[in-house]
């Protein structure tokens, strides 16, 4: 990637790229305050399921550092974990990463001093970030096997390096195929209301020299009908035991369209996005965001004041529309529950 990183951890400070300012400005925020991390997750300065988990894991470290020396240290760190868990409800990676930090706290709490617990939490956060980079690389290598030379793929939202520690998930597959010398072109949906496709996916792909064409969300049906797309590949915020997939609002429509046009619909995600505790997509909490995201565009009002707005940030694609789920362990093409169980050991 061309000289930018989603995260850096150095000398007890977290640095992250403010994604709300892209593509106009590449500005990093450096903080020692977990509240700044929580706020960044809420406001989508850090966004994308794996990236939210990584940011939250570092947030726990920052919170614990601030509490070093406080009475009832363990209890207070648990409160920081709860606060971070309140930031966004849909991406399960957030809760997966916080559970890992909670487990570190609980393993060390009875015999270790605060300083040792903080070191253990820091090691775990760095491990979560390092693992994500490896995992995304593996997802990309597995996903690239599905992308033939010369095809055009359509993607939605941003499932790229910005949404992870590096490489991305859906965009990792595209990246790896491109790096292998395959000629892959991309249609990027703009992804209303917050334009992750236009602002972030296009930015990432253009920096890597991958041919990308921007379309508005309502053009996807037409480009498929015109025979311009050979595969759809998206990321996920949560995948349930039966293979249902929550991802950015608009994904479900693309899956239905892909089926109608006989186009494969691929989902690329790490195992940390699979939630075996939920039986189906109906159980996934779907975040609803502020009306202003819909009633204005780039800060300019585009609807009469006071209009009623429904603004779900995600939708659920039923498993029957999913051709394959690409993970770091391999590619699932059905029999979801059994395949996921064979990949995920309890507590992983
Ligand atoms: C690898 S990121 C996968 C998903 O998190 C991504 O597709 C998505 O829906 C992100 O939504 P966002 O609201 O921008 O956090």
TrEMBL record:
Substrate binds at residues 47-49, 88, 196, 247-248. One of its GO terms (biological process) is L-methionine salvage from methylthioadenosine. Pathway: Amino-acid biosynthesis; L-methionine biosynthesis via salvage pathway; L-methionine from S-methyl-5-thio-alpha-D-ribose 1-phosphate: step 1/6. The active site is at 237 (proton donor). It catalyses: 5-(methylsulfanyl)-alpha-D-ribose 1-phosphate = 5-(methylsulfanyl)-D-ribulose 1-phosphate. The record marks 157 as: Transition state stabilizer. InterPro entries: IF-2B-related (IPR000649), IF-M1Pi (IPR005251), IF_2B-like_C (IPR042529), Initiation_fac_2B_a/b/d (IPR011559), M1Pi_N (IPR027363), NagB/RpiA_transferase-like (IPR037171). Keywords: Amino-acid biosynthesis, Isomerase, Methionine biosynthesis. Its EC number is 5.3.1.23. SUPFAM superfamilies: NagB/RpiA/CoA transferase-like. Belongs to the EIF-2B alpha/beta/delta subunits family. MtnA subfamily. Catalyzes the interconversion of methylthioribose-1-phosphate (MTR-1-P) into methylthioribulose-1-phosphate (MTRu-1-P). HAMAP family: Salvage_MtnA. This is Methylthioribose-1-phosphate isomerase. It comes from Hydrogenispora ethanolica.
């Amino acid at each position: 990637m061309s000289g930018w990183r989603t995260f850096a951890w150095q000398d007890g400070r977290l640095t992250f790229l403010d994604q709300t300012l892209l593509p106009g400005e590449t500005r990093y925020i450096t903080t020692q305050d977990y509240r700044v991390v929580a706020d960044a997750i809420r406001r989508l300065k850090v966004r994308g399921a794996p990236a939210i988990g990584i940011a939250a894991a570092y947030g726990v470290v920052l919170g614990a550092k601030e509490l070093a020396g406080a009475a009832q240290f363990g209890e207070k760190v648990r409160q920081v974990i709860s606060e971070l868990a309140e930031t966004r409800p849909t991406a399960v990676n957030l809760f997966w990463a916080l559970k890992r930090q909670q487990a570190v706290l609980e393993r060390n709490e009875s015999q270790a001093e605060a300083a040792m617990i903080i070191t253990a939490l820091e090691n775990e956060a760095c491990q979560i970030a390092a693992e994500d980079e490896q995992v995304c690389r593996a997802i990309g290598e597995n996903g690239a096997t599905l992308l033939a030379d010369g095809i055009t793929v359509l993607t939605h939202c941003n499932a790229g390096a910005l949404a992870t520690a590096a490489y991305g998930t859906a965009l990792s597959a595209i990246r790896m195929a491109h790096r292998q010398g395959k000629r892959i072109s991309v249609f990027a949906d703009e992804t209303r209301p917050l334009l992750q496709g236009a602002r972030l996916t296009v930015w990432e792909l253009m920096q890597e020299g991958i041919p990308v064409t921007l379309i508005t969300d309502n053009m996807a049906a037409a480009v498929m009908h015109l025979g311009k797309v050979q595969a759809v590949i998206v990321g996920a915020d949560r995948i349930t035991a039966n293979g249902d997939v929550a991802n950015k609002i608009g994904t479900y429509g693309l899956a239905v369209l892909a089926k109608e046009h006989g186009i494969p619909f691929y989902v690329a995600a790490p195992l940390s996005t699979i939630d075996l505790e939920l039986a189906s997509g109906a159980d996934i909490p779907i975040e609803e965001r502020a009306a202003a995201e819909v009633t204005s565009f780039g800060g300019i009002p585009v609807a009469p004041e006071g209009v009623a707005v429904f603004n779900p940030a995600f939708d659920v694609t039923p498993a029957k529309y999913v051709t394959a789920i690409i993970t770091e362990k391999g590619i699932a093409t059905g029999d979801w529950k059994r395949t996921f169980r064979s990949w995920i050991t309890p507590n992983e």
